Amino acid sequence: MFKYEITPHASVVIWGGYDHLRELHQLIHRILDQSQYINDDSGYPTWLAFEVRKAYDGHRLTGVRQAGNGDKQNVYGFETSWLLIILQVSCLRQAQASYPATDQDHVTLSELENVVKIAITVAMPEHSSMIKHYLKSPNPFINDSDKLTSRLDEYDALPADIKTSRLSDYLSEFQ
Fold it and tell me: Which stretches within 6-159 are classed as H helix?
């Protein structure tokens, strides 16, 4: 199961156990390999796969959490900007619909999407309905890495206190 942590610099950390993150990494690559929706291997879904792999390899954030049965479990995480994780989840959701995904594939992606939605609701309640709507909307720029990179760089350069209020503006450019 994935968890989230909202950071003070307008980003989010996605946490998960080794197996969950490894499963997510494999799913992203299956989507990239099998979906006809994505044709840009250098794009932002690939960036997510990279961050997830670095996380479960222990090269990003690490921690320990208590499992439901009281046992301690190692967890691994990666920090990402709000704009990037929303674009990535939206892209993966759309791309997953274009190939025969397994039930487990749907569960894994739904868990990631759900934790992002919950984090959005907590961090930005005034913008959450529009942002959640975006997660379900087609992205016409899904294979335009140059435009996406340009807009992500611009967004990431904003001061933290402005990023949250401008997120809706940036997302509207991708609809």
Answer: 18-34, 44-56, 82-96, 103-123, 128-136, 145-156
